[in-house]
């Protein structure tokens, strides 16, 4: 008897609590849904998206929100943590669309995730703008509802290869190492013809397992084959290990360039002085010449971001903020929240933002040139862009004991 | 030829580190019959412990290993006495479930406490190496290898010649007879697990100097330790050393001759082979 009473009481309480949940989302808010890696092995990069989405939405709302048909609507964010699990992210996007009934979708990080998640947006015909997946595979399926603000993976090393050609006493033997996930494989497939066209000698072309922690053997091979330049397409954890292994084995090629890590403050802090001389690329730097409707310019965005969250934004964060802006602009252009109209407005996007010019290609992916950057004395320096050399690159890299 | 020699050396040094990682798991498994799926998480916590000692108190990572081991010993004792003793005579499935849950809890507590930022233990000599002819021997790896030898030998001598070591072996062989000799099982189990966790913590401290630390490194390390423990055999600490060295060399040769993507295929292929041909492990006693 008492047990039954207790059960009844507890279920009533639960019901009461559920109904009393604070209504923080107003009825006419436009809800953007996203599944981002907040925990799990990729959480370190996933947090850029959570923070970028939040700061962009807050900024747009502070300026009055999105104006549709004369009425102002505020944006709201519905964020789930996919724990760095691709399958969970797909389920969460399905839930966002079918149960939470969000208006539009934002992506998370990593091409593997976007590849799977975009299937949901395509199935339910809800536009998704993502700033975390650069792999060409995402955009090669003729999908109409996926848009991406990261430049194609296949061209990540494009400007780096051009710079290598333009260097005096430049490298001749090149080694290409890449991890076995969607983004890195795409990058390698795009880099091989670029190297061939530029006349470099590709002496090593090795695909390694993601999460490799030991690069000793590969580095010993690099040393024995007299490799001048090493191009690594991988994840931050692997590249951290690569650099540390290289130092402990005293392997110092004339230069090395990584697809990730160099733009991130976290990476440079973890390596300390060992990060010097590393080349990388970024499609974005926090410069004042990138004007923005809500933030003013990229430099102001970076300052506000740092003040609010305590760390410097990199291109992932800028890309995430641009995604929110792209949706806001598309909503205003379409004059409604109808997914089909917003989708068409997105496809016709053409505006300046803190991230750069937002204009999607026919397949939904943006195309921005990558700037070649290098860590020089602990700071990131822009060394090569479409116009040629900017700051002088520090080349060749000295031996480890001569630093 | 030079390349092959260098790769073999790389493999042996890597194997030494692997052996230290697997030692704790093999001890706990061989004696207590507890497959500790949280082993990797303890390695991770040991790494964080060493990192904090290095970063805030400027304790040299190698000299600070005994401190890390002591902290992890205390943690292991508490975990065994408080949690694992409840299921030590339960079916195997319960221990797997409980240690798996422990693994998840420890990982996410670490994420909350330390965030997912990468950390490295970077003492001044971290990049130092010795040159022997044309071969390069990274200093930290050699030190880790040395630690592996010392710990394995120490473990072996401990189990053979000390009173506690004999008590541990006796309890593993026949609990009733051991109790008749005055062994208090709850305390003994806790001591054994504590030693296992202390070894895991030491491995973590070493791992932090050669690689990087984040809350999620545990899972793959548990898997690796698991494979090495089986390959080497659970009866003898020397088996773990042999298993670790063997795996390290096989992995390095696979990268050199077949390709880096096949490393996992090679490791787990060897594991499957050992289970088929010699199930008690390379150095295990044939049944």
3D architecture notes:
- The complex is a heterodimer of chains A (403) and B (287).
- Chain A has 403 residues and is an alpha/beta fold.
- Chain A has two domains: 30-151 and 286-358, Rossmann fold; 155-282 and 370-402, Response regulator (Rossmann fold, 3-Layer(aba) Sandwich), CATH 3.40.50.2300.
- Chain A is 40% helix and 20% strand.
- Chain A has helices at residues 2-19, 43-62, 86-98, 111-124, 158-166, 182-198, 216-224, 236-248, 265-271, 298-309, 315-334, 339-347, and strands at 30-36, 66-68, 71-73, 75-81, 104-106, 128-130, 146-148, 173-179, 201-208, 229-233, 255-258, 279-282, 291-292, 296-297, 351-353, 356-358, 371-376, 379-385, 388-389.
- In chain A, α3 packs parallel to α4 (111-124) and α11 packs across α12 (339-347).
- The N and C termini of chain A lie far apart (79 Å).
- The model of chain A has no long low-confidence stretch (mean pLDDT 91).
- Chain B has 287 residues and is mostly helical.
- Chain B has a single domain, classed as ABC transporter involved in vitamin B12 uptake, BtuC (Orthogonal Bundle), CATH 1.10.3470.
- Chain B is 72% helix and 3% strand.
- Chain B has eleven helices and two strands, in the order ααααββααααααα.
- Chain B has helices at residues 2-32, 39-57, 65-82, 92-114, 139-161, 163-173, 175-180, 185-210, 218-232, 237-257, 263-277, and strands at 129-132, 135-138.
- Chain B has a two-stranded antiparallel ribbon.
- The longest helix of chain B has 31 residues, at 2-32.
- In chain B, 53% of the residues are buried.
- The model of chain B has no long low-confidence stretch (mean pLDDT 90).
- Chain A binds chain B through residues 39-41, 43-44, 47, 84, 180, 206-209, 211-214, 216-218, 220-221, 224, 236-237, 240-241, 244, 247-250, 266-267, 270-272, 274, 400, and chain B through 2-3, 6-7, 10-11, 13-14, 108, 111, 116-120, 122, 126-129, 136, 138-141, 210-212, 214, 216, 220, 251-252, 255-256, 259-261, 263-264.
